[in-house]
Design goal:
Strand order of the largest sheet: 7-11-12-10-9-8
Number of strands: 18
CATH class of the largest domain: Alpha Beta
CATH topology of the largest domain: Alpha-Beta Plaits
Number of helices: 15
Number of domains: 3
Largest sheet: 6 strands, antiparallel
């Protein structure tokens, strides 16, 4: 295989071993360029823009790695060796094993905590070198570029899907693709402030903006992209995402699903032929959830939409989690009622227990019970036991939930059954009551 370029970044708190690392890199590779750089402005925001959806907590990254001057090292690997290995992630990774071994070694020398950044394949190098130096991969392949070398992190869109109408590596940092013909579609003041529809590079799209659970927007792009790659027929394509310059809001753009929700379809009546197709879509979705290790947590008929191609598509991956790498949005952690009450589709399973196979089985039970639907339901039921994900609340939160359930019961009594809010209060009460009972038995 031809030689390739890679880069290593020694963040501020790893530089106490930089001489040792540089000496090792000179033995293992051909060092092409070494430069001390510094982020302008807020380094936490710079980390967020540089790492994109992969970084759950920029402030933690700043505490661990430091925000001062860092060292950029560009190397040439003259004998790249690509294999599929266990890189410590969700699934086996195909990467340059020489570079991966060096990166793990330098992490250990720097005291752990990911204080060293390194690229494992050319596509990652192309993206990172442009953001950190302002020069393209082609310029670096031709030699050391002329002119200033300095970080040029995007102030607008931070990531664009490689399968979108254009690729992330073709974007100049700082450019911000926009949603054209943008118009307000929906407002949800509780967590997602606004939804807008329009077109994104000619594709009908919907833009979701949040000013509360901000990190979860990057999470939706990251997990939604993985799900779309695994099952494009039943998950809409995430097109782009961004953090605002002040870090207080974020937006994700997804290809728009054109048809009604399964809730609406059920209210009008679903034919047996439709039910068979929906059952096949649900099995496809379940297989993708299992393969990717992702848990949606909020799968119910409102979050399954019928697209123009005739397939149901699962939307709203904002608060999904990875079974192997559980990460919760900080806003959700602070707002315990949202965390344990909103995800009420599996309320009978207990507090902080989620199972998408169980939820999809409940959806199948609402369809006409054709042979195909029955077979799909049996398959999900057989595998449901192994698909449970749990993050039960601590004791103080359980006490809070107990008092919350008591307050809901009191409100129900004071308002009476005929009050317009009674049904909503009762649903919340039953969710907390069932979850509390299941978790404490």
């Amino acid at each position: 295989m031809a030689s390739e370029l890679a880069l290593f970044v020694l963040w501020e708190k790893s530089r106490f071993v930089e001489e040792r690392i540089l000496a090792d890199l000179r033995r293992e590779t051909s060092v092409r360029y070494v430069k001390e750089l510094r982020f302008e402005g807020d380094p936490a925001l710079a980390f967020r823009r540089f790492y994109g959806p992969r970084l759950p907590d920029a402030k933690r990254k700043l505490r661990n790695c430091g925000g001062g001057a860092f060292l950029l090292v560009i190397v040439e690997d003259t004998a790249p060796d690509y294999r599929t290995i266990d890189a410590g992630g969700r699934l086996p990774t195909y990467c340059n094993v020489r570079l991966h071994a060096l990166k793990k070694r330098y992490h250990r020398w720097a005291g752990g905590g990911h204080r060293i950044h390194g690229t494992m394949e050319p596509g990652e190098f192309a993206r990172d070198v442009l953001m950190l130096t302002g020069h393209t991969e082609a310029e670096w392949l031709a030699g050391v570029p002329e002119g200033t070398v300095a970080p040029r992190l995007p102030e607008g869109w931070s990531a664009v899907s490689e399968t979108a109408p254009f690729a992330a590596r073709t974007l100049e940092p700082g450019l911000a693709p926009v949603l054209e013909d943008r118009r307000l579609f929906l407002e949800n003041k509780y967590i997602n402030d606004t939804f807008h529809v329009g077109t994104f590079c000619g594709v009908p799209a919907i833009e979701k903006t949040s000013t509360k659970a901000v990190w979860s927007i990057g999470n939706e792009y990251r997990l939604g992209s993985r799900m779309h790659a695994a099952a494009p027929a039943v998950v809409p394509m995430p097109l782009a995402w961004r953090y605002a310059g002040d870090g207080r809001s974020a937006s994700v753009v997804t290809a728009r699903v054109s048809g009604p929700s399964l809730t609406e379809l059920l209210s009008k009546g679903v034919t047996e032929a439709q039910a068979d197709g929906f059952a096949a879509d649900i099995l496809t979705l379940a297989d993708a959830l299992k393969a990717t290790g992702i848990v949606h947590r909020d799968l119910f008929t409102d979050n399954l939409l019928l697209d123009a191609d005739g397939h149901l598509k699962a939307i709203d991956w904002q608060l999904a989690i990875d079974r192997a790498d559980y990460r919760e949005d900080p806003w959700v952690v602070r707002h315990w009622k949202f965390r344990y009450v909103v995800f009420g589709v599996n309320r009978e399973l207990g507090l902080g227990v989620w199972n998408d196979f169980h939820a999809l089985g409940k959806i199948l039970a609402q369809l006409p019970q054709t042979p195909a639907v029955v077979v799909a339901a049996r398959k999900l039921a057989a595998e449901a036991a192994s698909m449970t994900s749990a993050a039960p609340p601590d004791r103080p939160t359980r006490v809070k939930l107990w008092f919350y359930a008591l307050s809901l019961r009191l409100q129900m009594f004071l308002r009476g059954r005929r009050h317009r809010k009674y049904a909503q209060l009762e649903r919340r009460w039953r969710t907390v009551k069932c979850r509390y009972s299941a978790a404490t038995n």
